Amino acid sequence: MGTRADDIQARLAAYEGLRAAATGTGRDPVNLPMIRHWCEAMGDTSPAYRGPGAIAPPAMLQAWTMAGLSGHGDRSGPYDELLRLLDDLGCTSVVATDCEQEYLRPLRPGDTITFDTVIESVSGRKTTKLGTGHFVTTRTDIRADGVLAGTHRFRILKYAPARTPAPKAKRPRPVVNRDNAGFWRGVAEHRLLIQRCTGCGTLRHPWLPGCNACGGPDWDTVEASGEGTVHSYVVMHHPPFPAFDPPYAVALVQLAEGVRMVSNVVGVPYDKVRIGMPVRLEFTAYDDELTLPVFRGVAA
């Protein structure tokens, strides 16, 4: 005979492959105005996204499925049942953990988007710092004029909150991968390194595997002077996050070299930060493992 845990997992696994939402249709066809707005917001100047032969940036994949503030309201019965079952098991809290996208063909202006979502997997019971629970992964297949163009996987953790007091929170660790490892090595040496395309000379930040101007894969680095100005900023009041003490200012800093990066502004009260304020780079150690670049406000 199986254990109770086996029985529970079998009940959860029975939902795998069932619809999570009804088939939907994008509110608008793929269109150049939306592509232009997205590129302007992201600072993406690739010529591939402009002109008569333009394609949509692959990372816009999910944008064509969004329903706006009104929402879709088309979640399926099986998905609601799965969430209620997890609630009954004590997993009453939820947090989004990650998403993955796969691009199979470029989207072009005029493409009509349809999509459907299934419950792809429900994990066994996992223990995390937040508590114990189950990871639920949904997969959305996105089609352009009926042809599969990409997939979007979205993963949540439905969990029972941990009841033991959490240790003093540390600042979140950066995600270091093969594309940005050089940047973090530079930070460890108190150097702010900017990628430079060796093909066209374009500087770029954050670090990317290829040039967003010419598409070239080869690059070297230049070290930032550390001078910059506040291009825009927000003051974080709510919600409070562990290891952060609101209110505090988070700025998009325009470096003297022409690229921008997000960081904290220190050395001035949060309510004195202003657009155009000169700032200077420094490095702050938050614990024995984590050092981050921040920007100190400079008196005019």
TrEMBL record:
UniProt-listed InterPro entries: ChsH2_C, ChsH2_Znr, FAS1-like_DH_region, HotDog_dom_sf, NA-bd_OB-fold, Thioester_dehydratase-like
Domain annotation ChsH2 C-terminal OB-fold: ranges: 222-283
Protein name in UniProt: Putative OB-fold protein
Domain FAS1-like dehydratase stretches: 24-147
Organism, as annotated: Streptomyces murinus
Domain (ChsH2 rubredoxin-like zinc ribbon): residue spans on this chain: 184-219
Domain of life, per lineage: Bacteria
Pfam families: FAS1_DH_region (PF13452), OB_ChsH2_C (PF01796), zf-ChsH2 (PF12172)
